[in-house]
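Collaborator request log, item 7. Partner lab (contact: R.S.) asked for a structural prediction of Putative membrane transporter to inform their binding assays.
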Amino acid sequence: MSIPAKAFTSDWTFIIGQYLAIAILPLVFYFYIPFFRKLKVTSAYEYLEARFDVRCRLFASMSFMLFHIGRIAIITFLTVLALRPFIAIDPVILVLLISVMCIIYTWMGGIEG
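Returned to partner:
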């Protein structure tokens, strides 16, 4: 919701980051991926545990989970903000309804179902 609104109201300066990501891809392909392939680890968490200790691995996995829980909460809240003018339901109930609908949709197979 924010990127199209920003592009409409101002300029396209945010797209520089997208071009930089594309420019960095060759470096990732030639240096980053071969480095980790030589290590014979199956995940970044395994590498963190081998390089540092189990506390670092736990911190990384907890940070990842908290980031995505927050991300899902923000996405759900923005959906409620977009639907609120059209649906006269309490926002808390609307968040719960959207969450239950997403869980059922995923349980039934999502797009592939």
